[in-house]
Amino acid sequence: MIESYLPVLVFIVMAMGIGIVPLAAGFVLAPRRPDHDKLTPYECGFEAFEDSRMQFDVRYYLVAILFIIFDLEIAFLFPWAIVLDDIGLFGFGAMGVFIGVLLVGFLYEWKKGALEWE
User: Fold this and answer.
1) Cα 108–chain centre separation
2) How far apart are CA 91 and CA 81, in angstroms?
3) Per DSSP, what are the bridge partners of residue 43?
């Protein structure tokens, strides 16, 4: 019975080794030369200067919405294109509704000026 689990145990040990050995090698072999620049806090290339609860510009959220729109569209278009022959006209209509909803989001982004980079 235990012999059937031996390959799984070998796989787990090898996976742990592949994960731990490079980390340990980097820790042991890496040069340690800390200086002022390496020890300073880093956030977006400059020191934090305001409260963490400050409001973000709305363009940040518009870019995030734009990414979600295109990401979802691509994620659903590939499987849909593969099974289009099987799902027929109903699948074509459902994807048309989906693309229409994404188009509304895209037009909202366009209207808000998220596509105009400064």
Assistant:
1) 23
2) 10
3) 46
Q: What are the C-alpha distances in Å from 30 to residues 18, 26, 38, 41, 88?
A: 18, 5, 15, 21, 59
- Which domains, ranges and CATH numbers included, belong to the chain? 2-112 (1.20.58)
Q: Which amino acid is at 103?
A: L
- Map tokens 């982004």 to a residue: 109
- Please state whether the predicted TM-score (pTM) of the whole model is above 0.85: no
Tell the residue number behind the tokens 């290339």, with chain if given.
Answer: 45
Q: Where are the alpha helices (DSSP H) in the chain?
A: 6-29, 36-39, 58-82, 84-112
**pLDDT one digit per residue (tens) for the chain, 118 residues:** 778 888 999 999 999 999 999 999 999 999 888 888 777 766 565 566 666 677 767 777 777 877 887 887 888 888 888 998 888 899 899 989 988 988 888 888 788 777 776 6
b/e map of 77-99 (b: 16 or more CB within 10 Å)?
A: eeebeeeeeeeeeeeeeebeeee
